[in-house]
Fold this sequence. Notes:
Layout: E1 5-8, H1 13-19, H2 25-38, E2 42-47, H3 50-56, H4 62-72, E3 77-82, H5 95-107, E4 112-115, H6 126-134, E5 138-144, H7 153-165, E6 170-175, H8 182-196, E7 201-205, H9 212-222, E8 226-229, H10 243-250, H11 261-281, H12 294-298, H13 302-314, H14 321-334, H15 344-357, H16 367-374, H17 386-393, H18 412-418, H19 430-438, H20 440-454
Parallel strand pairs: 1-2, 1-8, 2-3, 3-4, 4-5, 5-6, 6-7, 7-8
Helix pairs in contact: 2-4, 2-11, 5-6, 5-19, 7-8, 8-9, 13-15, 14-15, 19-20
Amino acid sequence: MAKIKICETVLRDSHQSLIATRMTTEEMLPILEQMDKVGYYSLEAWGGATFDACLRFLDEDPWDRLRKIRDRVKNTKLQMLFRGQNILGYRHYADDVVSYFVQKSIANGIDIIRIFDALNDPRNLKTAIDATIREKGHCQVALSYTTSPIHNNEYFANFSKQLKEMGADSICIKDMAGLLKPYDAYELVKAIKEQIGDMPLELHTHYTSGLASMTALKAVEAGVDIIDTAISPLAMGTSQPATEPMVAALQNTEFDTGLDLAQLDVISKYFDKLREKYLANGLLDPKVLKVNVNALLYQVPGGMLSNLISQLKQAGKSDKLAECLEEVPRVRKDAGYPPLVTPTSQIVGTQAVFNVIGGERYKMVTKEFKGLVRGEYGKTPAPIAPEFVEKILGKGAEVIDYRPADKLEPEMDKLREKCKVWAVDGKISDEDVLSYALFEQVAAKFFDNREKKRLGIDGKNSDSELGVHAI
């Protein structure tokens, strides 16, 4: 019996996708022990944008969230999403920071670390992979799925084989934009399985394009071992396929998950109340719940689409959305066909907006787009044409052909020194230092407010950004 395992995403990617990562720890805690009894393979509960959102918007310590979840979840694996050399931030960090973050994540309760790189550059994955293995965590490495003239089944199968050779314990197909179609999924899973054999293979997809449940079912038939789902009140739309229907669809088949729908109903009823609250307070916008065919046409993930709309609105050019969507694939082609996921989705999307509202392509070029072309984020899947490099960077500009992090000096000692100002009784926790490493200004504001509370001073921030920015 090829029993299918379920990873439940409601504590991380589900609410990251639907309500901009605003679910609080207090909202999670009452249902955790019940979730722990269900028999899920894992709970995706940390990483991704949750770290930033805790500090920036929720006035929470993300490390404290992880420890509280771990205290209540005794039997189910906890997993996190980790952006390779970017960790959970938006730039490359020195190897000592990456390794120490992995160590502290596992020490605070993480079992499975899902590591990915936006460009599928293995050099950007190596330090995090090695650290996870060294700390005896489960090292799952994800391939960022996309389509292009060079992204085909052979490409992803060979990449999966390379990840296995690098030490991965399992592989994940990370379909962040909901691009993977059912029959394509069947062929892709078969191709990858030929290369990795019995190594576990997981599918992570989004419902954005309306295909996710069908895609998951075909992947199961092809031999995938684990699928990511979200409990139904916070499923579908830009989130994952719903857990209960997938469990029901596989019941009494060779793929039966063994999960009890009655137990899942208890979980569902709890999150249904939260859903109603999010709808009432405006956190859950009904627009993110509908099928968006633009995901298939332009490879634009839900979060990237909302960013495009916001940027155009600020520029007074909302009528240019269709032109921007058509420009995105052209910019992506020019830049070597990067998969559109954080941070490349924001970089390509913003440049597409500039190209349209500027009236001339690449008349205005963002610093981040120049960095992508220069190689600051790693090696692009396809080579960038030399004449385009010259157009963006200028004649004779240096292009990086080495691993970007090779030029970064160790950072931990300097970071500890900077964090001494927030020491209590002469001590600053390693976790605080790592929070500061990722988000200096945001962490500093959080530490200041925490200290005010400790001293009994009102630490509320009058200019709080809560609810204004989505991550």
